[in-house]
Inverse folding.
């Protein structure tokens, strides 16, 4: 039987169907089953079939959006100016934790309310806007 003919596909389908999986298998059940089937096909000398079996992609759920009240409580919670400035920067500029930790005082352009983020996601530099409250929180922390 040559690789890529309908008989090969039928063989793969039978092998996959023989795995004991529920009617609506979850990703965590499908991935190991596919790995076993790939190993079996490689053992049987069918490497070309193996490369055509795609693994299911992990979904990208939308992030949970906080209500105005939750945001207000979060930003009012920190006890010291350092934590308050950090939360204000993360919330106002949409920073990731690594970006926040890499910030330097000269990254803040107070006149234009801009923040320079260096080596962000994908090792890219970018500018992001800051709220006036975030600028004030950073200035309050830096003046201590």
């Amino acid at each position: 039987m040559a690789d890529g003919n309908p008989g090969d596909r039928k063989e793969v389908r039978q092998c996959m169907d023989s795995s004991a999986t529920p009617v609506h298998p979850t990703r965590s059940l499908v991935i190991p089953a596919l790995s076993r089937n790939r190993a079996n096909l490689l053992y049987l000398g069918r490497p070309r079939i193996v490369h055509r079996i795609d693994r299911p992609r992990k979904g990208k759920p939308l992030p949970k959006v906080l209500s105005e009240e939750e945001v207000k409580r979060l930003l009012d919670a920190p006890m010291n100016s350092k934590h308050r400035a950090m939360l204000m920067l993360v919330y106002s500029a949409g920073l990731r934790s690594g970006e926040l930790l890499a910030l330097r005082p000269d990254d803040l352009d107070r006149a234009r309310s801009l923040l320079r983020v260096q080596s962000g996601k994908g090792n890219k530099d970018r500018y992001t806007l800051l709220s006036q409250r975030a600028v004030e929180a950073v200035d309050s922390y830096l003046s201590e």
